[in-house]
Amino acid sequence: MPEKSASNLVAEPQSPPKIRSPKRPAGTLYRGKEGMWSWVLHRITGVAIYFFLLVHILDTALVRVSPEAYNAVINTYKTPIMGLGEIALVAAIVFHALNGLRIILIDFWAFGAKHQRTMFWVVIGLWVVLLAAFIPRQLMHVFGG
Amino acid sequence: MSLIEAPRTPTRGHRTGGINWEKWGWIYMRASGVVLIVLIFGHLFVNLVAGEGVKAIDFAFVGGKLADPFWIVWDGLMLWLALIHGGNGMRTLVNDYATNPKVRKVLMIGIAASTVILIILGTLVITTFDPCPAGADPALLPSFCEAS
């Protein structure tokens, strides 16, 4: 703010209304911060799950070819690398599912948009809990005797 | 009329009457999403968490499941709902990122074709599936096949 105006001809307001501007851009539902990154993750996990789905329908279709053909392909799902891949797949599915519920709440719950940022961290919290339950179980199955 | 179009002028003009397909697509994503959470979490629990997990899956395991109408309906619903949900999601991405009209058209045809082909293939597999195929090695079949 400049120093007091030299002109006394115009009556200046004693205390101009203060509008406190944010230090950084605050972001909106889809621009910046949790709103944007949840959207980015939803797209990436969605595409990953989609391509797995295409492959998974084709490999399951081998049950119609012969027991040997199906077993040969499904045995590759039990190798250590694929076992870790299944953890990544489940991680993607669980995030997509929980964030999908968050999107539904933003759309249909009156306070959804207001609480979207909190709900994102609830999604992350539940995601961590569910994966903490799944990962040891999967490691036991794949690497256990 | 100004020479420069307003920045948000729709490419295809305004819709006048008829079924609002985009609205129904939007509703479908949410409705199918909720059902898919139940179906896929159940699928993951039975196939990856319960018992021996992924190590237990083989022809006999799948044969045992698909001999039960409950799992035929479960897997059939999962197939239809997930493929259409995924195909419509990919359509959204193509609409957002494929700016070249020819590339966009090719991608759209690819998505539609793979969705239709895989739904037909998957539906035929689970409805015509025989858990005890004639002439197969009995060691690879579900235990109930020996009775017949």
Describe this structure in words.
The complex is a heterodimer of chains A (145) and B (148). Helix content of chain A is 66%, strand content 0%. Chain A is mostly helical and 145 residues long. In chain A, helix 3 (80-108) runs antiparallel to helix 4. By secondary structure, chain B is mainly alpha-helical. In chain B, helix 1 crosses helix 3. The mean pLDDT of chain B is 89. The chains are: A mainly alpha (145), B mainly alpha (148). The A-B interface holds A 43, 46-47, 49-50, 53-54, 57-58, 60-61, 63-64, 66-68, 70-71, 74-75, 77-78, 83, 86, 90, 93, 97, 100-101, 103-104, 107, 134, 137-138, 140-142 and B 30, 33-34, 36-37, 40-41, 44, 48-49, 52-55, 57-60, 62-63, 66, 79, 82-83, 86-87, 89-90, 93, 114, 118, 121-122, 124-125, 128-129, 133, 136-137, 140-141.
Tags for this model:
heterodimer, A: 145 residues, mainly alpha, 66% helix, 0% strand, elongated, B: 148 residues, 4 helices, 64% helix
Oligomer: heterodimer
State the shape of chain B: elongated
Termini Cα gap of chain A: 73 Å
Give the count of helical stretches of chain B: 4
Average pLDDT taken over every residue of chain A: 85
Number of strands of chain B: 0
Radius of gyration of chain A: 26 Å
End-to-end C-alpha gap of chain B: 80 Å
The biggest sheet of chain B, with number of strands, parallel, antiparallel or mixed sense and barrel status, is:
none
Summarize the helix and strand pattern of chain A as letters.
HHHH
Question: Structural class of the secondary structure composition of chain A?
Answer: mainly alpha
Low-confidence stretches of chain B: none
Secondary structure category of chain B: mainly alpha
User: Quick check: average pLDDT of chain B?
Assistant: 89
Strand content of chain B: under 5%
As a whole number of angstroms, the C-alpha radius of gyration of chain B is: 22 Å
